[in-house]
Enolase
Amino acid sequence: MAKIAKILAREILDSRGHPTIETTIYLDTGHSGTASVPSGASSARHEAVESRDNDPRRFQGLGVIKAIDLINRTLSAKLKGIDPARQTELDQFLINEDGTADKSNFGANTLLSISQAAVVASAAYYQLPVYQYLRQKYYQQVPLNRLPGPTFNIINGGAHGAGNLDFQEFHLIPSARFTYSQSLQIGETVYQSLFKTLKYRRAITSVGDEGGFAPDLFTNLDALSIILESLKQTPYQLAKDVFLGLDVAADYFYRNGHYEIKDRAQPYSREELIVYYRELVKEFHLFSLEDGLNQDDWTGWGQLNAALGSQCLIVGDDLLSTNPDRVKQAIAKKACNAVLIKPNQIGTITETLKVINLCREAGWKIIVSHRSGETNDTFIADFAVGTLADYTKFGAPVRGERVVKYNRLSAIAAELKL
């Protein structure tokens, strides 16, 4: 049995140039594990709270020195001697020490950096890749015979884009009949075709936080139409080889009880927006619809799932915030049929696994996701494979902090010969 000898945290930058926490757990056996935590640009109201210094003299108040000091000066000593493989016990200790429901005392980023590093350190001690360690510890009875299917974010809007598109993400999802390496090639091919189409239309402005294009387009329909135009320049057919998806992030354009998007002059009511989504699902063969309504509209979510849940995935992200209590409520209300998993929304690996298990028991699809402010940590790729997720959402097939995760999945696919 290995024991924690020391924990050392430091401040690093994420992909948006904001500070975040990188933590290394050193074991008395000489093994170690390092984890760095991401951060979201569009954080849900029900997410666990991050620790930030709020000191305007450093990084616009976004520094994490307080969290670093807490880990190095206090939590390291308190966790010394604990077996990191006793994940539930370790995480519960962190939760109890924090003492708040939303992790606002220590911060979810503080807790997750330790919780995640414990997994990596334990995997190193047992001489296993992280994905194999997770699977053997939690899902040994389930065969590992496939990798999660990639969801490529190829156009960024909303809080992730240039501010001109209402919907936050426009996704490309290869058919499940393809291998992972084939799916990666499809994603890259369509992405490059989209670049050429946008360039031809003189609509390119930049790329968003997650590597998708942030083009000079006016409506969400424009974005969907230009993706279809780009597909025609590739060997792949819509609804056969590839499907489209949307992360609507409806809270971004929810105002005074209505939804204001540029696709029409008048605001949409909840019922009108659901009708509009039905039209989009039919016309563009949408495979998934994420955060289609306000994150506190439980009645509306039930209506949305009843209307479209048999035709596409109704994915809860902001609605659920990787929170077991909200997931239980969503299951009872039949509010969706898929979950987006983001460990930093809840703060510990144990709680994240609890959410995955609840959703799987309910028959939901599991989508493991990055955040807009990412690091070069590849843990989330191993986590998706080790927990037998159905899909991943790691952004576009560009930008180092995104590509490193796709490349990790490629390495795992080669190891498993999948």
About this structure: Residues 180-200 form the longest helix (21 residues). The domain at 149-416 is CATH 3.20.20.120 (TIM Barrel). The mean pLDDT is 95. The longest strand covers residues 4-13.
